[in-house]
Amino acid sequence: MIFGRRALVTFVLAVAMSVPAVAQDGKTVPESRAEMQLSFAPLVKQTANAVVNVYAERVVERRSIFSGDPFFEEFFGQRMPNRTEKQSSLGSGVIVGRNGVVVTNNHVIEGADDIKVALADGRELPCKIMLKDDRVDLAVLKIQSDGPFDIIPIGDSDAVEVGDLVLAMGNPFGVGQTVTSGIVSALARNQINSGDFGFFIQTDAAINPGNSGGGLIDMKGQLIGINTAIFSRGGGSNGVGFAIPANLVKVFVASAESGGGSFIRPFIGATFEPVTSEVADALGLDRARGALVTAVAADGPAAAAGLKPGQVVTAVNGIAVEHPDALGYRLTTVGIGHEARVTISENGKTRDVVLKLERAPETSPRDERLIEGRNPFAGAVVANLSPRLAEELRMPTSLRGVVVTEINRGSPAARIGLQPKDIVRSVNGTEIDTSKTLESVTAEDASLWRVEIERDGQVIRQFFK
Where is the active site (predicted)? Predict the structure, then answer.
């Protein structure tokens, strides 16, 4: 009898060990040699026609080495012969619309005068730019030819898990369409590049120069990311590549198709900082995760939702928020005109609040004015700063005052070093609260100008005659 029980236990264990590990979502781990030898070829055939090469060409002007030389400028009548040359860049793109809508990276086509895409069948077709944004490093192109075109459907990047198999498709080094395989190595990566977008999918699938704008594809043949960057000391792949999540791509494409001239992100009306281990201990949090509220603007969406300094945002619509960049990403993918359920932690307790996502408001008229006359600001265009104008100028939306939006070349303002995005705080002891005030003060006949300007958070005080 004892032998029979042992035999039964041994049989059950043997059966259990022979069944592949199956996750709750039906994903399995390959265990046999036959399973390990399965091919990605059917998936590549399904998606390859929708991956294109992007050729961008721009004309640049090279200044003559004699520019600025009084003798040669007098000889040529103040018009020095400059040389122009063409520069080309190569990247990849993914067709996501049967009418020829293509997604790529902004840095692939930045400054381009002429853009073409090369399809898998060898055709080269011209494109026009529908929308581009350097902050999220995305661009949407439209092929100037009749379709229909093969596409890769945009998937749900929130369904991606660490360990999922992926394919990276593109045109590395200009050698032609190339496919590499790997897994999702990490999610919600930030501080990857110098831009202000910080939410990437990390993969060990080989991504090399020329892959930028190509697709990161899951095993269903869906686009889960746009390849954008690598960490490398020598310029090649070291198994650390990054892709922009498909859910942001989806919102960006929708904005382009709606005819918007720019990609507008929601205005929150609050500033946030990462939760460090010291902050987590002080607030009684179990781990350093989330976005710490540091300031809340009056009459903004955050204030209306009840957010206060010292609170920590830990989730949006039930999805965990790892850092402030993740919070910005989550709210951006929800979209303007919608509401987000935000989970906040305070005094060891959590609760949900509803945050209405709106466009940054124009709280005061811009009243743009060109400053003229005999003063240091002559040739500068200034305007009243509001959250909307700050958003357009890529400045913190909490700033107020009179901001320089443009400097005329060769003007007194240019000669003293005034720059766009400078905020004029005072002139000759008078606080500058509106552009009209600045125009009035600079119209006075002064022999000495005392100027106070804020630039990138630093106050600069100068004297001019």
Answer: 107, 137, 212
